[in-house]
Amino acid sequence: MRRLEIPFLETDDVQEMDKLNQLMVGLKAIAIDCNPWPAYQADAKANFLMAHNGDAILLKYIVAERYIAANEVTNGNIHNDSCVELFIAFDNDGYYNLEFNCLGFTKIGYGYDRSDRKLLPVDVIKQLSFSSKINANSVINSNGGFDWEIMLVIPRAIFIEHEITSFNNLKAKGNFYKCGDGLPQPHFLTWNMIEAEQPDFHRKDFFGELTFA
After folding, report:
1. Distance between CA 137 and CA 144 in Å, rounded?
2. Range of the domain at 161
3. Which of 63, 122, 194, 209 could bridge across to 3 with cysteines, CB 3.0–4.6 Å?
């Protein structure tokens, strides 16, 4: 099981995305480099940087892939697009799935397994803020394609099934994903390895440990 320590970043100015991106530069990039289902191969690479300021999770994904798509809207089938995801559990009960496409459209659900999901209201999801950038002619992926990144500010109020007063010293479990089910090269990359016959991100039993500073 992988373990991740999430550093505290002292900033109240989380709506100034340019400044926030600069603050994130010094953080360690963590690879989403497991491919539990090698039958699916793609020219896709993904990393993330993560911190918190007590009141919000600060999460940046950096992606390179051959193909790109963004057809879905809020609470749609975001996993079919060029998609990055965070699944996170704050206790031994349910967990949240947060899914983002390359334009920032978002799907967030909560429940206990794949078949038991409740989508969060759109007005709750709108409390999340982001900036995204897409570059053609990838300089990261030697096979060409696109580079894109998304910077996310996820306030504690998003997690409506829990009364989180602060992320300080919080312990959680989770996994980070890169996928694109509807792309010409479907792929299902994970941070922590999953053991399952078919692609399935809803495997809480394979979440890694997350420790907030």
Report:
1. 6
2. 3-212
3. 209
Strand order in the sheet with 129-136: 30-31, 44-52, 56-65, 146-155, 129-136
For the stretch 26-83, pLDDT in tens is 999 999 999 999 999 999 999 999 999 999 999 999 999 999 999 999 999 999 999 9
Helices then strands, counting H and E runs in the chain, come out as 2, 13
Considering its fold, how many domains does the chain have in total?
1
Distance CA 99, CA 107 (A): 5
What is the identity of the amino acid at 105? Answer: F
Tell whether pTM > 0.85. Answer: yes
Tell me the C-alpha distance between 65 and 212, whole Å: 30
**162 close to 72: Cβ distance less than 8 angstroms:** no
Rounded distance, CA 177 to CA 50, Å? 14
Residue matched to tokens 């505290």: 8
